[in-house]
Specification:
5 strands; 2 helices; 5-stranded antiparallel beta sheet; 21% helix; alpha+beta
Length: 108
């Protein structure tokens, strides 16, 4: 399993929003990637999504990554949503981060 340890760039609890410097911003949720059979399943924690439009934006950006076959989002409006990405190979951390950023969010 590969740790993605990324943080919410939109944290509103103060500090820098990184969640790792002790300032109080963001959260320390971990994201992971694991091979299951012939596919890789990547589980992400994304904060800031509040509606179906948010879900569509994240789904569209992640679906555009090479090898992605499915994206599932369990929306927790205003909280930390679980995003599961299925792909034919492990995803690059930078590509995942860029896709979430392009959608307007950040990984928790």
């Amino acid at each position: 399993m590969q740790e993605l340890n990324l943080t919410d760039k939109n944290a509103s609890t103060g500090g820098c929003g990184c969640g790792g410097c002790g300032c109080g911003g963001g959260s320390a949720a971990q994201n992971s990637q694991a091979a299951v059979g012939a596919e890789t399943v990547t589980e992400l924690s994304v904060t800031g999504m509040t509606c179906g439009h948010c879900v569509n934006s994240v789904t569209e950006e992640l679906s555009g990554l090479a090898g992605v076959s499915a994206v599932e989002v369990e929306l927790v409006a205003g909280g930390t949503s679980k995003v599961t990405v299925r792909s034919d190979a492990p995803l690059r951390n930078d590509d995942v981060r860029a896709a979430i950023d392009e959608a307007g969010y950040a990984l928790a």
